[in-house]
Amino acid sequence: MAKFIFIAVFMVVLIANFASSEVAASSVVVVGSSNPKEEGNKLAMVQEEEDMDGGFSSLDGMLQWAIGHSDPGVLKERSEVAQRMSPEELNKRQTELKELMEKLKIPSDAQLMLIAVNDLNNSSLPLEHHLRALEELLVLVEHIDNAIDLQKLGGFSILVRILNHSEPEIRIAAAWVLGKASQNNPIVQKQVLELGALTVLMKMMKSHTTEEAVKALFAISALIRNNMNGRSLFYQEAGDTMLQEVLSNSNLDIRLHKKSLFLIADLAESQLENENTAEVSFFSNRLLLKAIVDSMASSDLDLTEKALYATKNLLLLRSTDVQLFKDFCKLNEVLERTRQQLNDLSEEYAMDVESLRKEVNLTFLQKLNEVTQSAL
C-alpha cells in the first residue's frame, strides 16, 4: 500500500511541475473526471475497490484507492518531500512512474473507451455488459479530449443507434452519455447532430418513462446550447410544440418543466445575443407563451423563478408581441397572483423571486408603454 500512496502523492506533484507532459496530462484527466452529477436514478459510476488480487480497471481507480486508504498525515509528509525534489530527481521519478505504470498494465482512457465501444457493438453480450460499458463512457467523456476521441472510435454512431434500443435502461444511459459528451463541446455537438441524434432524442421525449424523457431533454439541451446549427434544427423539428406539450401537462415530472423553462430562457438569451439573426416563430407560439406564464403560479419557487426568467428574456426580444402576453397569456393577472403568493412566504428565497417578479413586471409595463406611444 505504501507504494500506491507514494505513487498518488508523486502524481499530484507531477501535475503541478509537468503540466505539459504526458503523465501530467493523464493525471489531470483522472483527478477531475469522476464527477458525473445528474438528478434521477444514478448509474453506478466507479467501483472504488477492485478485486482482491490488487488489480485496477484504470489509473483513476488506483489513484482514488491510494488516496482514500492513506493516512492524511503521511500523505501530507510525503507530498512535502516530493515537492522538495530537484528537477533532475523529478525527471527520474517521472521515468520510474511510467515504467511502473507499464508493469501494472494500467489501460489508458482511449483503451478503456475502445473496450466499451466494442462491448456495445457486440449484440451477443448480456444487458449488464452493455450497461457497464455505458457507465464507463459516462465517466470518461467528462474530459473534453476523451469526448472528441470517442468519435474516432465510432462511439457516437453506436450511441445514436442504441437510442432505439428495446430496453429503456440502455436508451436512458445512451442519451445521458451523449448529453455529457456534448456539453460545452462544439466539436462533439457537430458530430452528434450530423448523426441525426436530435430527431431521435425528441421522439424519446414522448416516452412513458420519466427518466427517459428527463435524460432525453438533458441531451437535447446539451446538443443545442450555444450551437446555432443545433438551435436551427431544433426549431425545424417543432421544438416549440414539444416544450409547450411538456409545460401544459401537469402530470409530468416537475424536473421536465424546470428543464424546459431553463432551455427556453437560454434560447431566448441566445437570440438576444445574436440580434442580427432573424427571429423565429418559436418565440411567438402563443400556446407555448401561455404555458410559460401559467408556470409562474406553481407552488414550487424554483419553477416560478425559472418561468419568470424565461418570460423576462422573451419580453426583451424585439419581435415580442406584448399584447399577446397581455390579452392571451393574462400576464398582468398572473404577475399579481404571483406577488400575492410570494408575499405569503417569509423565506429569503421568496424575496429573491419577488425581486425578479418586479423586474419582469417593469419590463412588461415598459413594453406596453412603447406600444402605446408608437400607436399615437
Automatic annotation (TrEMBL):
Signal peptide: 1-25
GO CC annotations on file: endoplasmic reticulum
Keyword Repeat found: yes
Keywords: Repeat, Signal
Pfam families cross-referenced by the UniProt entry: Fes1
One of the record's GO molecular function terms: adenyl-nucleotide exchange factor activity
Domain Nucleotide exchange factor Fes1: 59-150
Name this protein carries in UniProt: Nucleotide exchange factor Fes1 domain-containing protein
